[in-house]
Amino acid sequence: MTLNRRTFLAATSATVLSTGLTVPIGNARAAEDLMTPGPLGEKTLGDPNAPVTIIEYASMTCGFCAQFHRDVYPELKENYIDTGKVYFIFREFPLDPLAAGAFMLARCAGETRYFTFINALYELQASWTRTNDPVTALFNIARQAGFTQETFDSCLSNQRLLDGVNWVKDRAEANFDVRSTPTFFVNGTIYPGVQTIEDFVSNSGGLL
After folding, report:
1. So where are the chain's domains?
2. pLDDT tens for each residue of 69-81
3. What is the DSSP string of 91-110?
4. 171 CB contacts (<8 Å, ≥6 apart)?
5. What average pLDDT score do residues 49-57 get?
6. 23-24, strands of its sheet edge to edge
7. Can you name the residues that pair with 86 across neighbouring β-strands?
8. How many alpha carbons fall within 13 Å on the CB side of residue 29?
């Protein structure tokens, strides 16, 4: 599948907000698989030797994901990731072609701009997901990150990139029981739905 202006379709994100369900990764092989990067490499923040590893599976068109990144993530980063307490791994789980395209653009924005681009897309989510022309809306955002029309179109037609993003989603569904966004793993245990700082502290087993 190649994304371009004719095939790049906006879709309404359908998410299931779950609470109270925890599913541990039950054996060493599964835990090792969870920590294995996808074909495009990981997007991470913090110290890999931190006592707590948080993995987030997110979709760019997910309203709950945007809520988390606006309301919870800044404190998580400042007080836990930047202080060496949490190693944060962000993984792509696109719920629709529009989300896949947004992830591709974040990858194309460059290694040092990835999280800045992701955060900008969440802040401006309504402006590019609730429009009849999401591609133009995304381009207007991407242009501020240095994209030209040529590099924008080239990124969205990169089949290797699209396959890599979808590989991460497919593995999460098949191997880790990820069914909705956001879904978090805290030291190998799954917690679907938006988490608060208090949730992360509680679910860390006393390590935070």
Report:
1. 23-203
2. 999 999 999 999 9
3. EE--SSHHHHHHHHHHHHT-
4. 38
5. 97
6. 23-24, 189-192, 183-186, 52-58, 86-92, 43-45
7. 52
8. 1
Nearest residue to 99 via CA among 127, 134, 142: 134
Which residue type is seen at 140?
Answer: N
- The three-state (H, E, C) secondary structure of 27-64, written as one string: CHHHHHHHCCCCCCCCEEECCCCCCEEEEEEECCCCHH
Tens of pLDDT, residues 119-128: 999 999 999 9
192 pLDDT higher than 50: yes
To which CATH superfamily is domain 23-203 assigned? Glutaredoxin (3.40.30.10)
Please, are residues 60 and 137 in contact by the beta-carbon 8 Å criterion?
no
The H or E element containing residue 191 is strand 189-192
Asked whether 73 and 109 are in contact (CB, 8 A), the reply is no
pLDDT band at 208 (very low <50, low <70, confident <90, very high): very high
Peptide bond before 37: cis, by omega within 30 degrees of 0?
no
pTM of the model: 0.87
Residue 187: pLDDT band (50, 70, 90) is very high
Pairing state between β 183-186 and 43-45? unpaired
Identify the helix (H) or strand (E) that includes residue 135.
helix 134-143
- In angstroms, rounded to a whole number, what is the distance separating the alpha carbons of residues 57 and 119? 15
- Which residues in 41-57 are b (16+ Cβ under 10 Å) and which e? eebbbbeeebebbbbbb
Residue 78: which residues within 8 A CB-CB, separation 6 or more?
none
